[in-house]
Design brief:
The complex is a heterodimer of chains A (155) and B (293).
Chain A (H helix, E strand, L loop, with lengths): L2 E7 L2 E7 L5 H8 L18 E4 L2 E4 L12 E3 L12 H8 L9 H14 L5 H7 L10 H15 L1
Parallel strand pairs in A: 1-5
Antiparallel strand pairs in A: 1-2, 3-4, 3-5
Chain B lengths: L6 E3 L4 H11 L3 E4 L5 H7 L6 E4 L8 E4 L2 E5 L4 H6 L1 H6 L1 H9 L3 H4 L4 H7 L7 H6 L3 E5 L4 E5 L4 E3 L2 E2 L6 E8 L5 E8 L10 E10 L3 E10 L6 E2 L1 H7 L6 H14 L10 H25 L4
Parallel strand pairs in B: 1-3, 2-3
Antiparallel strand pairs in B: 4-5, 5-10, 6-7, 6-10, 8-9, 11-12, 12-13, 13-14
The chains are: A alpha+beta (155), B alpha+beta (293).
Amino acid sequence: MKYRVRVRVNGEEYEAQAEPHLTLVTFLRDQLGLLGTKWGCGTGDCGACTVLLDGRPVTSCMVLALSADGREVTTIEGLARDGKLHPIQEAFVEHGAVQCGYCTPAAILVAKALLEETPSPSEDEVRRALAGVLCRCTGYSKIIDAVLAAASAGR
Amino acid sequence: MSAPDVEYLRPSTVEEAAALLERYRDRAMLVAGATDLLLDMRFKNLLPQCLLDISRLPLNYIREEDGELALGALATIGAMERSDLLRRRYETLVDAARNFGSPQIRNLATLGGNIGHATPSAEMAPPLLALDARVRLVSARKKRDVPLEAFFTGPGRTVREPDEIIAEFRLPVSLRSRGTAYLRHCARETLDIAIVGVACSLSLDDGERIRGARIALGAVAPTPIRASEAEEVLRGKVAEEAAFARAAELAAVASRPISDVRASASYRQEMVRVYTTRALTLAAQRARTGERG
């Protein structure tokens, strides 16, 4: 049986039908066509499917689509404005923090949530925030550089 | 997962949820943070007749009331990590929350789920044991409190009846002279399951003599356990290395670890000794410096 789900994604209201066992990552990708959110391990370990749920990072493979009903989701597609990249995205480009790109949406969303709560994080705080985003290109240093640079630019 | 029809129900009150659970009992699976549930559905091929989503029940709180600390079952591990109240007065819970899973999982996983799922390594269990927590279970029939010590019966097993919901945890309020800590041993710093976890609580008279102690161990027995003999030997002793070393030996003896992919039984037992000493030292330091408001 399918149930109705109403969810606000990147500021836009969506109404759809979803099976009870459908996860949020599959809902976003297959039903809403938002392919920026990546499907990685499917077990909540790698962090590639990270989205912001009511402003906080969560692994969307560990969320039922129906549980997101009435809540607010931000995906990587929600960051650029009028064709202009978000400052954190700019910083990732400038610092070469994107290699294969698979973890990039997650890393940027985690950074966004971090900088909203802690505008001037220490390097340790950045590392702790990124602990749940695995980069198999192992380009962690440049990701950390980019987040710290975005933080100083925002000051 | 392709599936026969699964029902999805999302009650908004505890009474409603209890009535539904009374009807479905173990044909329903509870959805809160869902981080354990979705893994079970995928790897154990569990597909319930009904997913009972309790995530909207008003059980998401962290507060002191009636001389107790009340932790709603839906409080997330992330909320506990960020709680000023817990950081000031119940440090052991924050120590454990900070080490739990990943930040993204902490924003989903709930305290009720972590305890209800009852893995021997459940991160939040040793701190709650060290703080004398009680589990409040609610069903359509009754409401009852169970000491956490009597709650676990084996790996993944508890005394919770199929129609009961874990509603909250209640703990005695912190005393000013008390210090608590939780330390874990892991192969890597984050995203890992503890090889050994040790929580302790020390109440000191005049910053010196131990009035009371609690020591709880995770991942070294079929359930999280208290090390009662180690607690006893500390009572009335001066809070210093000699007493801690003796208690740590007794804690190691109390543990009944297994050998698995993470560590051998004998290594785990030795780590219980090492981490008990360290956790007691940290708790005593916190009791003396009064890291609290």
